[in-house]
Every structure is written in structure tokens, then in C-alpha cells.
Task: inverse folding
DNA sequence: CCTTTTGACTTTATTTATGAAAGGAGTGAA
DNA sequence: TTCACTCCTTTCATAAATAAAGTCAAAAGG
């Protein structure tokens, strides 16, 4: 289904998704049209879900990166889920998990003040454990 | 420093980083060369860190997505850090965190067997708490 | 008030990449 | 052998990127 060349293509596009088909072709030893056809297949089959950029959140003013383990008391999660929908500017990911907690919420904040305010509001909907990312 | 148009550019490129400069220009009401110059600025200033793809890990055979909270007993983390360097195929991210644990390790696995084997080996270097992602 | 400078943009023209079409090499099945 | 199939290359028309020159408006200085 996926041969070595396809994996090379995924590696190269992960590193730089704005390569031209010609450049990508040179890296994996194919011509432009050939590599273009393979990329189209990878898109159609859903292996490549999309093309995106890595944004430096700190330079956008979001210096604080956190993971918040959510423990909801009630069996109804709707209160928590509705709340985070109103907090999109802070959200990176919300994972439903099994294990120690119901959700793992990945967030970014510009300042401790805003983090603190967020946690205060969050606490009305769920308990939490906070982890702050020091280094990636 | 970063005006509304720059933010629009970041949004559009986050959604699809393979837009042509012409298409991107149309979306933000600029010509190709104008938007190209802005993107170059965003790259030079480090706001755009890179261009990448979203890969469907499940379709690559990695169906299991986990977060593992690492608690190292000793004050020397080297044993753990050396270990994970040998496990690159499973690794997505390793965050050094403050809070409940020393590291938060994001991993992917093809099967419970390999996850189990990984945990067994991990346990020689650190204690852990496992969370498995059910939904994103 | 006029002139100059600056920055961000558009226009134009050249270079370069894309993508469709045709053709060839290798593989497996009848 | 022959056919069908897949995957590739080559070629070429079209489209995009990029460099250079020109436009315009706002700010600074005489």
C-alpha cells in the first residue's frame, strides 16, 4: 500500500510542505509528474490530511503553553464542553482520554493573569490538574 | 507589528499552506507579490516556523495515541532521556513540564502489544501514568 | 507650503513550475 | 507471445512565482 518512496515523500513534506513537485521529485529520485501523482494518491487515500504551517505562538503573544487534565464530577460533560467552546482563543487541542481524567486540554495563554482567570472559570465546570510546559 | 491582514494570512496558511500566492492574495485582498512579501516577512521574523503536513497516523498503522506522564525517581533524567531517543518511531512530542510529573510524553503505537512492550522498557527508567486518547 | 523620504502596494515582464497527454518499460496472467 | 496494467518519463501549453520598475499616500524637514 505504502512503499518506501511514499514514506520518503511524507518525511520531506513534513519537513517542508511548500517544496515544488520538481524539488520533491529530486529528493526522492522521481520526476515532477511522477511525484505529483503519488502525492495526489496520498491525498485521496487520506494519508495526507492537509497542509499547514507551524506558528510560533510566543511571537503571537501566547508565551504560556499548558496541559490541563480535566476531571468532571458529573457524568454529564456538556457544561465543560460548552464552556471551552467559548474559550477558543486559548485552545490548542481537547483530547478525550481514558486514564487519569476525562479530558486532556492543551491550551496557550498570553499571561498568568489570563491563565488564572481561565482556571477560575473552568473550575465552575470541572476539576483540573495543571501542567505548564517548560520545554519541548 | 502584526496587523489584521497578517493574521488572516496565518489563518489561511494554517488551513492550507499550499495555496498559491495568487490564491492567498485573493483571500486577503492583495496581489501575489504583495502577499508574497508579507509571507517572507513572517518567515524572517520567525512567526512562521515552517510548512508541514497533517498525516493520518492511523492510516500509517499507528492506531493508538497516548499521553504518558513521566515521573522519574532520580534527579538525573539522563536514563529516561537516553531511552526515549531509542524509541523515535513511537514518539510525537516530549514536553518537560512543571506540575504532576517531570515530562509529558506524547506517543503513537500500532498495537497494544507494542505499547505494552514500550511501557515495560520505560518502567526501567521512570514511573509513568498512561492516558489513551479516545477522541480529539 | 512644497519637497523629500519611506513604506507598502501594483503592474509588467521574465523565469520557473504545474499538469495534461502521449509514449515506453517492466510485470503478471492467459 | 500477447494483452492488460501500473508506473514512470518526456513534451508542451498554461499558470504561478519573482525581480524590477513605477504608483501612491503618509510623515518629516526645510
Result:
Amino acid at each position: 500500500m505504502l512503499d518506501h518512496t511514499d514514506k520518503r515523500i511524507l518525511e520531506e513534506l513534513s519537513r517542508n510542505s511548500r517544496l515544488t513537485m520538481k524539488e520533491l521529485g529530486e529528493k526522492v529520485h522521481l520526476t515532477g509528474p511522477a511525484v505529483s501523482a503519488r502525492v495526489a494518491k496520498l491525498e485521496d487515500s487520506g494519508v495526507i490530511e492537509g497542509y499547514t504551517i507551524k506558528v510560533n505562538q510566543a511571537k503571537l503573544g501566547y508565551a504560556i503553553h499548558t496541559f490541563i487534565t480535566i476531571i468532571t464530577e458529573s457524568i454529564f460533560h456538556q457544561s465543560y464542553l460548552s464552556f471551552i467552546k467559548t474559550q477558543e482563543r486559548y485552545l490548542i487541542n481537547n483530547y478525550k482520554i481514558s486514564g487519569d481524567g476525562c479530558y486532556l486540554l492543551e491550551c496557550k495563554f498570553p499571561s498568568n493573569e489570563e491563565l488564572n482567570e481561565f482556571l477560575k472559570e473552568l473550575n465552575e465546570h470541572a476539576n483540573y490538574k495543571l501542567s505548564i510546559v517548560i520545554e519541548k
Observations:
- Residues 32-44 of chain A form the longest helix (13 residues).
- The first strand of chain A starts at residue 48 and ends at 55.
- Residues 20-22, 32-33, 36 of chain A lie near DNA strand C (CB under 10 Å from a C1').
